[in-house]
Task: structure prediction
Amino acid sequence: MNHGDNGHPFLAVHRLQGERIHALLKSNNVLHSHISPVEHEGDFIAFPLLDVDFSASLKNDISAITNLPVHVIKRIPHVMDEVDPHTRLQSVVKDWLTRLVSQKQSPEIQPFIDALPKKWERLGELVLFPSGSFSQEIWTAFSSEDRSELWRDIASVLNVTSIGIQSPVANDAVRSSQATVLRGTSLVKFIDHGIHYEFDAAKVMFSSGNVTERRRIGAMDMSGETVVDAFAGVGYYSFPMLIKAGATHVHACEMNPPSIDGLVRGAEANGIEDRITVHQGNNQESLPKLKRIADRCHLGLLPSSEAAWGLCLQALKSEGGWLHVHMNVKEEEISDWKRKTIEQFQSLSDRMELGFTIRGDHLERVKWYAPYVRHVVYDIECRPERS
Ligand SMILES: C[S@@+](CC[C@H](N)C(=O)[O-])C[C@H]1O[C@@H](n2cnc3c(N)ncnc32)[C@H](O)[C@@H]1O
Result:
């Protein structure tokens, strides 16, 4: 069911039949409770639907009232009633539990309502609930038909086509996503700050929490620059650098096939495929082929991008440039880490005889990664000694 620009599905009937049709839709659980019925083309009233796949008997019952086959389903732009999404989620789950629990004599439902997720991540038409949501026995005890009815209703009140559950990002090199889909599809397309992203959210992670950093990087002036993105993912930073910051070209290193897929699709959606070169495979092999070509290198890997530090220094042009180094650092150790990092880059440059003087510039605290641990980005300038 599409709730996008095409509008929401409504069943339009003559107002004289409105009361009976309303009761019928309600008793068959296909009436959407958070969208108001609307007046339609003069004498008609249109009822918002949860589902357009009516059972044969419901179709018959409707036809018996209206004397018409049910072909009057229209998509009408709507305004969701002024209830916040958390209340809508609670109320739809409560309705569903009340309906089923009374039949199955299950325990009190209020604790389960109280335990519903209070926040979630939205990626286009997909809502991802935090890991562990809907995992208690009460949810798993219901039949898959009952649960798929609930997922349908939840998607509907949150105004998306798909819902899933987030899992912790895998502790593997490619930082895979392990999200599971409850309804719909994990293939997402969305626009963030004017930039298109397209990828499979069940296979790759996308940290919405890094939005401030994506905007900060996009707000820099990179006009005329060649940039190396050592950990490109699905273009989290490559795209803002090209589209917002005005970089001329990005060399995007990425080794995870589903991420490469998203990177290529996103580049096409943004119309920048000519300005990005994707280097597939481990950057330990691709970066050595990018010596002395870059004005800037982006090193966006957590918990640490250290394995690529020397290779990124080597990728900078002889006139030097900038590095953006991501790292997870304990808050109390940040100043120590800054000093050591500059020393480390300086000694790498000296050992490789690159002739740079390394200078730490701004340190951005992006977000809390864990208690006491910050995700930081250190902007580092590297210039030839004589300058
Ligand atoms: C964690 S993602 C970037 C996430 C991003 N920082 C965000 O804001 O959502 C890092 C990417 O680097 C890739 N990667 C990790 N190690 C790599 C390597 N040695 N060579 C190439 N790509 C690598 C992973 O596959 C992943 O797509």
Q: What stands out?
A: The radius of gyration is 27 Å. The chain has three domains: 8-76, 85-185, 207-384.
